[in-house]
Design a protein that fits this description.
This protein has seven helices and two strands, in the order ααααααββα. The protein has 278 residues and is mainly α. It has a domain at 32-178 and 215-260: Four Helix Bundle (Hemerythrin (Met), subunit A), CATH 1.20.120.180. The chain has a two-stranded antiparallel ribbon. α1 (32-50) crosses α4 (96-126), α2 (52-66) packs antiparallel against α7 (218-260) and α6 runs antiparallel to α7 (218-260). The longest helix has 43 residues, at 218-260. It is elongated.
Length: 278
């Protein structure tokens, strides 16, 4: 588990340290005002990194609460028993339980995306200046950043879960739409007025009717099976999010020394005083 941060936090009330003739503990050519965004990025990243396990634990609780230990056939039977319109009287309504799970995945994916962005930014702020030699720690930073970005890319794809679900389900439900037919009839009347002139009047009548097709039951089973599939997909996606948090935590806990101080110089330029969050 992650302990409280032991690192130094920049804030607006802290003044830049003075030189003592030998070393300067914290140095930046930026002004205090210009330093604020950097300090904020570091502090926000530290908070996100220290909370990775907490997010995993929270997701574990949500998964356990949202997905009872029952086979998918039981879920299918439950969805099949939901009220649905009679044949020819409209399409089935949305599955509120599945929609709620899709919304949960999207919300959690949005949170995870931001947390991973914060962690990536923290590593960027810890990157040393370019120089020859002693770059093993920089390689570690690049490796961890690449892994975080790869996970974040998969997480961001989950933001489409709600729109994709409704779109694909809607395409399937088009097969349940009752077919409409139109009958068109035309009639022509010839009339002669008082002056002997002949006139013609044409009348067109269009009649539409809807015919219920009760012969294809597979289409009715389709949307139930599709909802079950999405139900399970939501479980898998939330489990993946949980695993991503745990994986990210492991990357930081195993490599924190190199990530925080890639060249082993410490904040004072020596190989001591390396920040640790774990």
């Amino acid at each position: 588990m992650i302990s409280h941060l032991h690192s130094h936090h920049f804030d607006r009330s802290r003044r830049r340290p003075k030189r003592d003739g030998r070393t300067t503990r914290y140095y930046s050519p930026l002004s205090d005002v210009d330093m604020d965004p950097i300090a904020e990025a570091i502090a926000t990243g530290e908070q996100s990194i220290s909370g990775l396990v907490d997010h995993a634990v929270e997701l574990g609780g949500l998964i356990q609460k949202s997905f009872p230990a029952v086979p998918l056939q039981a879920v299918h039977d439950k969805f099949a028993a939901l009220p649905k319109p009679a044949a020819g009287e409209g399409k089935p309504p949305v599955n509120k339980e599945v929609v709620a799970l899709c919304n949960l995945v999207r919300d959690q994916a949005a949170i995870a995306t931001q947390e991973f962005l914060n962690a990536e930014m923290w590593i960027s702020m810890k990157a040393p200046s370019c120089s020859d030699g002693n770059n093993f720690g920089v390689d570690v930073q690049n490796f961890v950043t690449t892994e975080l970005k790869a996970m974040r890319t998969k997480i961001q794809a989950m933001l489409d879960v709600v729109s994709t679900y409704h779109w694909q389900r809607g395409l399937g439900l088009e097969k349940l739409a009752s077919p409409k037919t139109s009958d068109v009839s035309e009639s022509e009347n010839n009339e002669v007025d008082g002056e002997g002139k002949k006139t013609s009047k044409k009348t067109t009548t269009t009649t539409s009717k809807t015919t219920a097709d009760k012969s294809i039951g597979d289409f009715e089973q389709y949307y139930v099976a599709f909802d079950v599939k999405q139900y399970h997909a939501a479980y898998v996606q939330l489990s993946e999010l949980k695993n991503f948090y745990v994986t990210a935590h492991a990357l930081f806990s195993k490599n924190m020394k190199r990530l925080a101080d890639p060249r082993g110089e410490g904040e004072s330029g020596s190989a001591t005083n390396v920040m640790s969050m774990f």
